[in-house]
Amino acid sequence: MSAEGTTASEETLAMMLRVLKLPTVGKHAEEVAAQAARAGWTFGQYLRHLMGLELEERRRRRVARNLHHSGLPGEKTLGTLNRKRLSAPVARQLPTLCEGGFVERGENVLLFGLPGRGKTHVACAIGHELVRRGRRVLFTPTYALVQRLLGAKRELRLEKELGVLDGFDAVILDDIGYVQQSRDEMEVLFTFLAERYERKSVLITSNLVFSEWNRIFKDPMTTAAAIDRLVHHAVILEMTGGSLRAERAEETRATTTTAATTTPTTTTPTTTTTGEAERQQDEASVGEM
User: Element (H or E) spanning 29, and its range?
Assistant: First the structure.
């Protein structure tokens, strides 16, 4: 085949790969062909290797895209989590939760504890691991989700908005205990939870135990119905121990105090004038006589 024919064939192949949306195959085809020739691969081995590269690159792009749209805080990962602070039950369940089996079963994860106990970090760490495994996750403060749903309801598109949220395998509602809703706000939150019941997972952090959830849903019947749906298929994590924020504040104060007490003081050296030195020398000579 002439050089012109070879170039035309390569251009045709490149065009076909673009149409088929196989950019990684086009990028690495020549390089892998040389590798296959050196190693004596069969055509099937060559093709499988190329397809493997394409699939891996697609997986990487999908993970990056899902992470970008998740809203997860970038610093709250499994790698930055201080596992020594976790209670034994939480530490024991964390690896299993990170594998994501609960998402496949449509189960929930509920994290309870006083402020500063690491609820949000644990929930986000699980979320990051789910994204890494190809899941779609959304992290949102509860008040923000409530306002999002309430706005959709006012614009008569609540069903559509719930459909958008249904595209996420897991939704992390942070700080549900801080939400003090009106009846309309309570209703859209309950609707959201009811829509996901036994189908899609939610992870909820709260500083309020269930007996105090009347402060969230106002109505006892609605509160009972919401709790019933959440705990029916759920893993409950109790975050105990001291407040991480308080400990960090104490460490900062201690460091500041230590720095202040060890700051070296400067002293002004004593200087003696020439005349004073001569007078002192004469007095010393008289004393020796």
Answer: helix 23-39
Cα 211 to chain centroid distance, Å, stands at 29
CB atoms within 10 A of CB 282: 9
> What does the alpha-carbon distance between residue 222 and residue 140 come to, in Å, rounded to a whole number?
22
Q: Is 217 exposed, middle or buried (0-12, 13-18, 19+ CB in 10 A)?
A: buried
Q: How far apart are CA 217 and CA 189, in angstroms?
A: 9
Cα dihedral 254, 257, 261, 262, rounded to 10, equals 60
Please answer whether residues 94 and 122 qualify as being in contact, where contact means their C-beta atoms are separated by less than 8 angstroms.
yes
User: ∠131-135-137 over CA atoms, to 5°?
Assistant: 70
- Say if residues 126 and 118 touch (Cβ distance below 8 Å): no
| pLDDT tens string 1-13 | 555 555 677 678 7
Separation in Å, CA 151 to CA 156, 196, 242: 9, 20, 38
DSSP alpha helices (H): ranges in 100-243? 101-104, 119-132, 142-154, 158-165, 183-196, 214-217, 220-232
The single residue listed with the structure tokens 């002192």 is: 280
Could you read off the pLDDT of 252-280 as tens digits, one per residue? Answer: 665 666 655 655 555 444 444 444 544 45
* Residue 234 · residue 203 · CB < 8 Å: no
Distance CA 183, CA 254 (A): 46
Give CA–CA dist 2/227, Å, rounded: 74
Among residues 247, 240, 119, 244, which one has the least CA distance to residue 175?
A: 119
